[in-house]
UniProtKB/TrEMBL annotation:
It comes from the Bacteria. Residues 29-52, 275-300 are annotated as: Disordered. This is Secreted protein.
Length: 300
């Protein structure tokens, strides 16, 4: 009977590991002075970096609690949720940002199918809005809001599936222009990891600048930036009331998808851009035939 002996040895090993960890915890606990130097020559972190929004279903004592667990493809179906506060009760009082108490972003995990919605708040703290998606897949639902009791806005996210045959689409390559409904939107400016950067957009139609854009959500437009890979929701602030100018801050080098909502002739449209941080080249889309061999490295 070898297996029980091995298991017992393994269990003893675990005890030993935990024992060491507990000992280390005491050594570097709050009473220990001075702190040991960081291992492997790591730079001393000045402070824990802020976690980007949208990655968690609960944060800072608040929790996103969806009552609907599926999205419908085609015809919109009701979608309802609550934001639960630190006391476990639905939050009913919010501080308005960008003209609304809560902004709801719905986007498929491959960054396609973007929607920006404004649910209605019921007296009991239940938010509801009809949602229909064009294609099946796993969707990210992001709620951007500021409880009245809090000094800052918060973005919580939850995955919600739309049942059916999911065909992921590759992210379009980085580009400076986007076309939507006959409008051409041009992006000027670059994202910089860990720094605030200016992003300016101009809209033209039939080769002529559109100069009569209409106010939307307290500015001339609304910009959302999501990180490829985990759909982190980035902080973007309007920098002007008279131009499509924004200050964006992204936490890490990489590829992002920008969604610019603008209103013209009474209709809101979304222009989408893939953007990379300065110095980062978007990796080519993987091909089915990619593999070993280019360097002569083979497996038998
Ligand atoms: Cu909104």
């Amino acid at each position: 009977m070898r297996t029980p002996v091995r298991l017992a040895t393994f269990a003893l090993g675990l005890v030993a590991v935990f024992g060491v960890a507990a000992g280390a915890g005491r050594l570097i606990g709050p009473d220990a002075q001075p702190e040991p130097p960081p291992a492997h020559g790591e730079a001393h972190a000045p402070a824990a970096p802020e976690i980007p929004g949208g990655l968690q279903i609960a944060q800072g004592g608040y929790r996103l609690s969806p009552a609907t667990t599926r999205l419908t493809v085609g015809e919109p179906g009701p979608f309802a949720f609550q934001v639960l506060g630190p006391d476990g009760k639905p939050v009913t009082a919010y501080t308005r940002n960008h003209d609304k108490d809560l902004h709801l972003i719905v986007v498929r995990r491959d960054l396609s199918g973007y929607q920006h919605l404004h649910p209605a708040l019921g007296a009991d703290g239940t938010w509801s809005v009809p949602i229909g998606v064009d294609t099946p897949g796993q969707y990210r639902v992001l709620a951007d809001f500021q409880p009245a009791a809090e000094p800052e806005a918060l973005t919580l996210g939850v995955d919600v599936p739309a049942a059916g045959d999911y065909q992921p689409v590759p992210l379009p390559p980085a580009a400076r222009t986007a076309e939507i409904d006959g409008y051409t939107v041009t992006l000027d400016g670059d994202l910089a990891a860990g720094a605030s950067s200016a992003l300016d957009f101009t809209v033209s139609r039939d080769g002529k600048p559109v100069t009569d854009l209409e106010p939307y959500l307290g500015a001339l437009g609304h910009l959302v930036a999501l990180r490829e890979g985990d759909l982190a929701y980035l902080h973007v602030h309007p920098a002007s009331e008279t131009a499509l100018s924004f200050q964006a801050e992204v936490p890490s080098p990489g590829v992002y998808r920008l969604y610019l909502d603008f209103q013209h002739a009474g209709k809101v449209r979304t222009a989408e851009f893939t953007a990379t941080t300065t110095g980062v080249t978007q990796p080519p889309a993987p091909t089915e035939t990619a593999g070993h061999g280019a360097d002569g490295h083979t497996h038998d």
